[in-house]
Design brief:
By secondary structure, the protein is an all-beta fold. It has one domain: Immunoglobulin-like, CATH 2.60.40. Helix content is 0%, strand content 61%. It contains no helices and nine strands. A four-stranded antiparallel β-sheet has the order 5-4-8-9, with no helix packed on it. A three-stranded antiparallel β-sheet has the order 1-2-7, with no helix packed on it. Strand 8 and strand 9 form a beta hairpin. It is globular and about 45 Å long. The model has no long low-confidence stretch (mean pLDDT 95).
């Protein structure tokens, strides 16, 4: 199984507050289809760190439907997962995204700034 992850971060402002949007793309770089199995409705975890210390986690305080599901990614296709962090404080951060599939791993990280 050859999964490759890419994480993009977009910081936007509506004039009053900023929002950080995360897009985690998981690409099947292999030659065979990949069948991902999930144990709940949350398919990816997003974490924000500041100097190695966790300051935000997408799943904190959220509930997800407990259901077994699967997703098939054909060779050279990409599955995309998104999250949003509202009203972050200013700083320099590292975002980490991780696939929450059973028996399959993929993650990505990138740095970003909030003004």
């Amino acid at each position: 199984m050859a999964l490759e992850g890419r994480l993009e971060v977009e910081v936007s402002s509506n004039g009053e507050a900023e929002t950080v949007r995360f897009e985690f793309a998981v690409r099947n770089a292999g030659t065979d289809p990949v069948e991902l199995q999930f144990s709940d409705a949350c398919k990816a975890e997003f974490v924000v760190e500041e100097e190695g210390r966790e300051v935000w986690r997408y799943t904190d305080g959220r509930m997800f439907a407990q259901m077994i599901s699967s997703e098939r990614i054909a060779p050279d296709e990409t599955a995309t997962y998104e999250a949003e962090w509202e009203e972050p404080r200013s700083g320099e951060y590292t975002a980490v995204a991780e696939l929450r599939a059973q028996e399959a791993t993929c993650d990505a990280r990138t740095g970003f700034s909030v003004q």
